[in-house]
Amino acid sequence: MRCRVELLIVAIALATCHASAEAVLKDSVYTVKTAGQTAVVRVLTSSATCPTVLWDLKTSQIMSVRAAASVAPTHVQPAAVRHALFDVLTCEAAWPDGVRSAQINGQEVPAPAAETKRIVIVADTGCRMKAAEQAFQECNNPKQWPFAQVAQSAAAMKPDLVIHIGDIHYRESPCPKDNAGCQDSPWGYGYDAWRADFFEPARPLLAAAPWVFVRGNHESCNRAGQGWFRFIDGQPWEQERSCDDPAQDGRADYSSPYAVPIAADTQIIVFDSSSAVNKTLHEHDESFDKYAGQLKQVAQLARDKSNNFFLSHHPLLAFLTNKHSHEVFPAGNKGLLSVFGSQYPQTLFPPGITLAMHGHVHLFEYLGFSSAHPPTLILGNSGSAMDGHAPTRLPADAQAYPGARVKDYSVSSEYGFATIEQGQGQSGPAWRFTEYTVDGQPTFTCILSAIDKGCRYVGKNNSQ
């Protein structure tokens, strides 16, 4: 096996030696927003060297190598999963203060907006191919896997920022030979699968605005974590946090939360829940300690703004229906609930959290509460096969968690995406949330106000 890996590395080196330094892959030039006001330009290239970025048509800078082309042994179970071939060079450069534009080989790079007025939100976008579940989505059918159309419609909204709330990579197993729906699709954890699942279909949206990425369970170290750190993680590259070495996974799978300001009084707080398990954790558990530490950091970050949007892939407050018995049940992640509930038993979230947004459950769901819990949005309906098990109505006494009494509820099992726009409400500054169909038709709208502590309906509402 070692000889095979070394031969693959030699093949990569020979291929890149003949590539021009200008061989930037056109669908892989993008901007990642990181903590605070910082942002980085990223490029994936088949060249052996990084390209030059031109700032404000004045100053040139050679981009730095973030991650070299390589063959990375995966440590996924079962062990039959092949090595991950990353046959591209990942390059990056930090946006300098005051710079308003950038070009790479004449291609415009999406610049951080001076003011964030409109944000596009997607989640759970990849095409599911998983032999263990006998789940093979029709990746070749845009009706069955509509992420490319979602990206096109969302880009037409001209956003200032795009948020992806996790689960980007889904092509984990080879498509069966007799399955025309996903025939010839790349699979595994290398760049070819990442390109097919994300970079190619997301091209217009990557070109539209900078992105904030929230890590999902599909991007944990025992799945597609190696691509996560090479391509889209917002933190500086560290080999120890690359998911290449299983002995380092305990560190790599728990990233520190960070905040990105989007208005004078508002910020989003990004929380890494990629390794959250759906079972109760206890105080002596290592995961409990790590998530408790991250939650303390969230509380500290939330003190900086009066209005804080909490983003994690796994929801804490949600509902699903048993597909066999049709019984409605709370679907929040039990591991996170055990940690958050121990620290904040009345609200689950620290003071200052005015909205929670998640993915993971493949549908759209809105929950507003008469209790002190922040309104919650589940937005996992942007491409991966839909769950379709959300209750259309809730019992009158429905509680998503003990004490979390539901007042307003809306749900859809259709594919789509969402926007949040800065504006004015009845009580002062507010954010307008809108859920859209794949083609960009609005289906649900509410006005979120920190003063009102809720999201006031303008559009569709599934009453209890």
Can you describe this structure?
The protein has 464 residues and is of the alpha+beta class. It folds into 2 domains: 1-95, no CATH class; 113-457, 4-Layer Sandwich (Purple Acid Phosphatase, chain A, domain 2), CATH 3.60.21. The chain is built from 8 helices and 28 strands. A 7-stranded mixed β-sheet has the order 15-14-11-25-26-27-28, with helices on one face. A 7-stranded mixed β-sheet has the order 16-17-18-21-23-22-24, covered by helices on one side. A 4-stranded antiparallel β-sheet has the order 1-2-8-5. α7 crosses α8. It is globular and about 60 Å long. The N and C termini lie far apart (58 Å).
Task: Walk me through the topology.
Blueprint: H1 2-17, E1 24-33, E2 39-45, E3 52-55, E4 59-62, E5 64-67, E6 70-72, E7 84-86, E8 89-94, E9 102-104, E10 107-108, E11 118-122, E12 129-130, E13 135-136, H2 147-155, E14 161-164, H3 191-199, H4 203-206, E15 211-213, H5 225-232, H6 249-252, E16 258-263, E17 266-271, H7 286-302, E18 307-312, E19 319-321, E20 328-330, H8 334-343, E21 353-358, E22 364-369, E23 376-379, E24 406-412, E25 416-425, E26 428-437, E27 442-449, E28 454-457
Parallel strand pairs: 11-14, 14-15, 17-18, 18-21, 21-23
Antiparallel strand pairs: 1-2, 2-8, 3-4, 3-9, 5-8, 6-7, 9-10, 11-25, 12-13, 16-17, 19-20, 22-23, 22-24, 25-26, 26-27, 27-28
Helix pairs in contact: 7-8
